[in-house]
């Protein structure tokens, strides 16, 4: 499989200037199914040229949201603007040209098995009534973009999962959309192939300045390519912001839970020994980001608060080129004054500090 994307110089899809820099704008969107509120007042924008990731658990409202965006579902109330035009009350005939402004990439590829790769890619143009030479020329351009020119005459059954998804991406780009919707596009792929597909989407976003909205339940996908993230839970957006800022300081419990698999956590053997009250050592969780994570925080702390502090776990990562770290410190628990000094020093340096508990002996 091609790991590096090489696009021909002539592919520079120019999306007509929208009436607004917000390619998508949702205003107080609500949708109920019986007693269940699938969407409960969602307001959201996706700006031109950005990658927005929407993440949530199963049943959070992601699928209903994406169906409202492409006009397959009508909200009970609220407004859906695509390139400045409100679409939620349009009839099917009026929706058709607008849907061509939206490309869709699916989890299970949705390729037609009886058609060749190039025919699958060209299908949206055939439906639109474009002449065959134009369709095939566009398919050839896009297959070169996704690294599958040699597979033009092949059938989907002969392709790997990653290759099928590349064909799906090429097909989604055929009509030169303003918005690409990716609905769990990497969930059925292995980790290596996932990285390759995400790199392709990032490359397409950069080359074509294409706006992408990612629906996912995997925080690693968000971390890899998104500019902003919105966390949805029980039909509501509970948190939104730049990816690195949300990673550094998750405010909601659901966000902290979703981040649990990719951020350092206190090792179970230490967590199992934590107790309330007093102990030989106090365990602190320290979250730092940006400037607070760039400096010699621990050495400065040791110089300012003389005490046998110990780093028991953690590390510094980089998200959107910003350092984001979580550290777990063991602080002597008997001296409450030193503990207060330690916490005050860390907070003064911009760190977020949480006392997790106490342990009876060294960890």
UniProtKB/TrEMBL annotation:
<dbReference type="InterPro" id="IPR003439">
    <property type="entry name" value="ABC_transporter-like_ATP-bd"/>
</dbReference>
<dbReference type="GO" id="GO:0005886">
    <property type="term" value="C:plasma membrane"/>
</dbReference>
<keyword id="KW-1278">Translocase</keyword>
<dbReference type="GO" id="GO:0006865">
    <property type="term" value="P:amino acid transport"/>
</dbReference>
<keyword id="KW-0029">Amino-acid transport</keyword>
<keyword id="KW-0472">Membrane</keyword>
<dbReference type="InterPro" id="IPR018449">
    <property type="entry name" value="NIL_domain"/>
</dbReference>
<protein>
    <recommendedName>
        <fullName>Cell division ATP-binding protein FtsE</fullName>
    </recommendedName>
</protein>
<comment type="similarity">
    <text>Belongs to the ABC transporter superfamily.</text>
</comment>
<dbReference type="InterPro" id="IPR050086">
    <property type="entry name" value="MetN_ABC_transporter-like"/>
</dbReference>
<comment type="function">
    <text>Part of the ABC transporter FtsEX involved in cellular division. Important for assembly or stability of the septal ring.</text>
</comment>
<keyword id="KW-1003">Cell membrane</keyword>
<dbReference type="InterPro" id="IPR017871">
    <property type="entry name" value="ABC_transporter-like_CS"/>
</dbReference>
<dbReference type="InterPro" id="IPR041701">
    <property type="entry name" value="MetN_ABC"/>
</dbReference>
<feature type="domain" description="ABC transporter">
    <location>
        <begin position="24"/>
        <end position="259"/>
    </location>
</feature>
<dbReference type="GO" id="GO:0016887">
    <property type="term" value="F:ATP hydrolysis activity"/>
</dbReference>
<keyword id="KW-0067">ATP-binding</keyword>
<dbReference type="Pfam" id="PF00005">
    <property type="entry name" value="ABC_tran"/>
</dbReference>
<dbReference type="GO" id="GO:0005524">
    <property type="term" value="F:ATP binding"/>
</dbReference>
<dbReference type="InterPro" id="IPR003593">
    <property type="entry name" value="AAA+_ATPase"/>
</dbReference>
<dbReference type="InterPro" id="IPR027417">
    <property type="entry name" value="P-loop_NTPase"/>
</dbReference>
<keyword id="KW-0813">Transport</keyword>
<keyword id="KW-0547">Nucleotide-binding</keyword>
<dbReference type="InterPro" id="IPR045865">
    <property type="entry name" value="ACT-like_dom_sf"/>
</dbReference>
<dbReference type="Pfam" id="PF09383">
    <property type="entry name" value="NIL"/>
</dbReference>
């Amino acid at each position: 499989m091609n790991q590096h994307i090489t696009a021909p110089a002539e592919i520079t899809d120019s999306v007509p200037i929208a009436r607004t820099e917000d390619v998508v704008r949702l205003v107080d969107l609500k949708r109920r199914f019986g007693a269940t509120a699938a969407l409960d007042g969602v307001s959201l924008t996706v700006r031109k040229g950005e990658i927005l990731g929407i993440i949530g658990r199963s049943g959070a409202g992601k699928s209903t949201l994406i169906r409202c965006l492409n006009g397959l579902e009508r909200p009970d109330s609220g407004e859906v603007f695509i390139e400045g035009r409100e679409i939620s009350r349009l009839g099917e005939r009026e929706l058709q040209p607008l849907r061509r402004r939206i490309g869709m990439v699916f989890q299970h590829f949705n390729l037609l098995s009886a058609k060749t790769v190039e025919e699958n890619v060209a299908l949206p143009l055939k439906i639109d009534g474009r002449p065959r030479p134009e369709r095939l020329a566009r398919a050839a351009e896009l297959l070169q973009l996704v690294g599958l020119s040699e597979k033009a005459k092949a059938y989907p059954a002969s392709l790997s999962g990653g290759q099928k998804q590349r064909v799906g991406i090429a097909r989604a780009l055929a009509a030169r959309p303003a918005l690409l919707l990716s609905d769990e596009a990497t969930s059925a792929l292995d980790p290596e192939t996932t990285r390759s597909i995400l790199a392709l989407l990032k490359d397409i976003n950069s080359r074509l300045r294409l706006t992408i909205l990612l629906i996912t339940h995997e925080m690693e996908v968000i971390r890899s390519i998104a500019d902003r993230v919105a966390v949805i839970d029980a039909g509501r957006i509970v948190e939104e912001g730049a990816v690195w800022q949300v990673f550094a300081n998750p405010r909601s419990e659901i966000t902290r839970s979703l981040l649990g698999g990719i951020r350092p956590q206190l090792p179970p053997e230490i967590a199992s020994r934590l107790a309330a009250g007093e102990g030989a050592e106090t365990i602190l969780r320290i979250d730092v980001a940006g400037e607070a994570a760039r400096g010699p925080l621990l050495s400065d702390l040791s110089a300012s608060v003389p005490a046998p502090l110990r780093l028991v776990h953690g590390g510094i990562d980089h998200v959107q080129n910003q350092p984001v770290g979580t550290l777990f410190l063991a602080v002597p628990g008997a001296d409450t004054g030193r503990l207060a000094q330690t916490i005050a020093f860390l907070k003064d340096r911009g760190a977020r500090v949480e006392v997790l508990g106490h342990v009876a002996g060294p960890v």
